[in-house]
Amino acid sequence: MKKLLFGLCLICALFVVACDVDASGKSRQKVVVKSPDLNDYLANLEENTPDDPYVIVVSEPEKMEVHDALYNNPRKYVSLSFVDYENYELYFYKCVNLVSIEIPEGIKEIIDGAFYQCVNLQKVGMTDSVCSIGRTAFLYCMALNDIKLSQNIEKIGEFGFYECPNLEGIKLPKNLIYIGQNSFNYCSRLKEIEIPSGVNTIEKGTFLWCLSLKKVVIPSTLLEIKEGAFLYCSSLLEINFTGTEEQWNSVIKTDGWDENCSPYLIINYNYKN
């Protein structure tokens, strides 16, 4: 009887919004649930519930309730978005249940390690309120293949996207001024990248082991390329430099910056997008 009453109360507490359809055409349940109820909601899903990710819109989010609910229910994968945001800090360190997330308006910083080793995280959306990505923020997000960055991001911390092997493309915002060392190390499917004009240094190991990287656009404002920046980029065929040959020659290049790149690598000068 108690279980029945609890079930009825739980149903009353949740409002089913719609069915979400994923890329494969499968429908997935979409619900709005207050974060204090999220533990109960996930824990009481029926055993025969389909394995497809649930789309959960979290109302009145509070950090620990959401965080614990995802950790304590390893048999269910979820996609998260948020409403009624206020003073919420995103932190899903090693949360293997998370498959997608919409970062809400008001988040200014994706903190250090925020999505560290979220190995099933595939898709990230964010508003333009985000201004920086912390150190190791998306490190070891092995499934990440779709991310839209805020146009106002100025900094990507060290190891920010280290070993995201399914990330084929990412558009860096024009306001970016700093990319930390090893930020895209082992992004083995990354095919091309354009460095914004505000970035004056390509740090050590930034694109190390980007085996599929074929094309890079570098601004005339660049001052330095550090050791191993493009080490083992064996497919890199062209660097398109927006300045003159003289400007390119004035860029400080540490020995080994292009070691083990393609022997057919060429530099194109005065490149225009």
Label this structure with key terms:
273 residues, alpha/beta, 4-stranded parallel beta sheet, 4 helices, 18 strands, disordered N terminus
Describe this structure in words.
By secondary structure, the chain is α/β, with parallel strands linked by helices. Helix content is 13%, strand content 25%. The chain contains 4 helices and 18 strands. It has helices at residues 2-13, 35-43, 63-71, 245-250, and strands at 15-21, 27-34, 54-59, 78-83, 98-103, 109-110, 123-126, 132-133, 146-147, 155-156, 178-179, 192-194, 201-202, 215-218, 224-225, 238-241, 252-253, 266-268. The protein has a 7-stranded mixed β-sheet. Helix 2 (35-43) links the parallel strand 2 (27-34) and strand 3 (54-59). Helix 2 packs parallel to helix 3 (63-71). It is elongated and about 65 Å long. Residues 1-28 have low confidence and may be disordered.
Secondary structure blueprint with pairings:
Blueprint: H1 2-13, E1 15-21, E2 27-34, H2 35-43, E3 54-59, H3 63-71, E4 78-83, E5 98-103, E6 109-110, E7 123-126, E8 132-133, E9 146-147, E10 155-156, E11 178-179, E12 192-194, E13 201-202, E14 215-218, E15 224-225, E16 238-241, H4 245-250, E17 252-253, E18 266-268
Parallel strand pairs: 2-3, 3-4, 4-5, 5-7, 6-8, 7-9, 8-10, 10-11, 12-14, 13-15, 14-16, 15-17, 16-18
Antiparallel strand pairs: 1-2
Helix pairs in contact: 2-3
